[in-house]
Amino acid sequence: MTTADGLEAALKAAVDALEPRARRQLFARIAQRLKANTRKRMARERAPDGTPREPRKPDRTGQVRTQIRMMEGLRAARRMKHKATADGAELGYRGVNAMIASVHQFGGIAPVTAGGPTALYPARPMLGMSPADQDFIQREILEHIAGRIRL
Q1: How, if at all, do strands 88-92 and 108-111 pair?
Q2: Which long-range contacts (CB under 8 A, 24 or more apart) does 26-29 make?
Q3: What is the CB-side half-sphere exposure of residue 89 using CA atoms within 13 A?
Q4: Which among 124, 136, 147, 138 has a CA at the least distance from the CA of 32?
Q5: Across the chain, where does the E strand assignment appear?
Q6: Inter-CA distances, 133 with 14, 107, 113, 151, Å
Q7: Averaged over 46-55, what is the pLDDT?
Q8: In the predicted model, is pLDDT for residue 151 greater than 60?
Q9: From CA 123, how far away is CA 56, in angstroms rounded?
Q10: Which residue(s) pair with 88 in the sheet?
């Protein structure tokens, strides 16, 4: 067992020892921050691992639509949903936004516009945890637990 594995096991045990209400509050703060971090990363057009997204292909005239950033609609706060329970936190999309996001996340064939022609979209991951997100989660758990200790 490495030191990192030991830290993760200790943090998991400490979180499991919290009351359900305290866990839900902790996970809600984590989910809100992860949502903000994901939106910033999407604006920079980076994957969760830090690699740049595959650029857009030129259209029929040879022009690339660079004025509009990719996934601008999906990164809107009102479309990205987060949920926290005593068991964990979720970050994602619902409904039509979920279908659009899954095509971008995993790649695939989808219509360009409703009822219009289809196109092959390359995978452009947007949801996921970066190493900075993992560090943030560990720090947030430690701060939460330290704040609950009464001396």
Answers
A1: unpaired
A2: 26/140, 26/141, 26/144, 27/84, 27/85, 27/86, 27/88, 27/89, 28/84, 28/89, 29/140, 29/144
A3: 19
A4: 136
A5: 81-85, 88-92, 108-111, 118-121
A6: 19, 24, 34, 30
A7: 87
A8: no
A9: 12
A10: 85
Average pLDDT over residues 8-36: 91
Q: In sequence order, what are the beta bridge partners of 90?
A: 83
d(CA 42, CA 69): 9
Instruction: Provide the token pair at 73.
Output: 């609609």
**pLDDT the model gives residue 19:** 92
**51 touches 122 (CB < 8 A):** no
Q: Model pTM greater than 0.70? A: yes
Residues in the chain, total: 151
Q: List, in order, residues 6 or more apart from 32 with CB less than 8 Å away.
A: 82
SS3 content of the chain, % helix, strand, coil (to 5): 45, 15, 40
Q: Determine the Cα angle at 4 with ends 3 and 6, to 5°.
A: 65
Burial environment of residue 124 by CB neighbours within 10 A (0 to 12, 13 to 18, 19 or more):
buried
Structure confidence at residue 45 (pLDDT): 86
